[in-house]
Amino acid sequence: MPPRWSRIPDRKDADYRRLDDRMTFATHVPLFTAVNSGMWFFKILQKADWSWSVWVTGIWAAILLAHGIYVFAIADYSEPVATTPAPATGFKPREKSAKSSKG
């Protein structure tokens, strides 16, 4: 069951940012596991000479480790994040002209 948030989600909320970062990491781990296990399964099954597979796994594992260290040890959730306002989208309504239609 997915976690429920008791209030309106807001990136300025430290608890929400912490949960969001941990959920992102929790998505990163199974993605790494699925892709790498599939890659190694087919490498072994086909007896292929994929020397690049070691590099892919090693670099991705290092990135995953850095991601985990950041989320669980380095990230500071004590201060709110400054957000920039979203750019205006769509059309602006026409402004009424200053001229009077009566003359």
Automatic annotation (TrEMBL):
InterPro entries: 2TM_dom
Pfam families documented for this protein: 2TM (PF13239)
UniProt keyword terms in alphabetical order: Membrane, Transmembrane, Transmembrane helix
Chain intervals for the UniProt region annotation (Disordered): 83-103
Compositionally biased spans, kind Basic and acidic residues: 92-103
2TM domain: residues covered: 17-77
Record-annotated membrane-spanning stretches: 25-42, 54-75
Protein name, as recorded: 2TM domain-containing protein
Source organism: Phormidesmis priestleyi ULC007
